[in-house]
Specification:
The longest helix has 25 residues. Helices cover 79% and strands 0% of the residues. α1 packs across α2, α1 packs across α3 and α2 packs across α3. The protein starts with a helix and ends with a helix. The protein has one domain.
Amino acid sequence: MLILAIIVFGMAAGAIAQMILGTRMKDINWPRAFIAGILGSLVGGLGASLLAGDGLELRASGLIGSIIGALIVSLAWGALDKRRR
């Protein structure tokens, strides 16, 4: 059940990161949001939870870290896209 919650919140974190970067809700790239959210959750969420001493439980520190991690992944992905063009 925890894995399902991580996947769902990872996708939401990726979508939130895209909206912070200026994407409208109807223009969200869902596959990119899923990948950025999962990677951001692993990097940011796990890191924030471990730094805060929460362990691997779903806590506010991990949720905020997931959004920040997804934001970083989305920014990096956007920079790579611009560089390729």
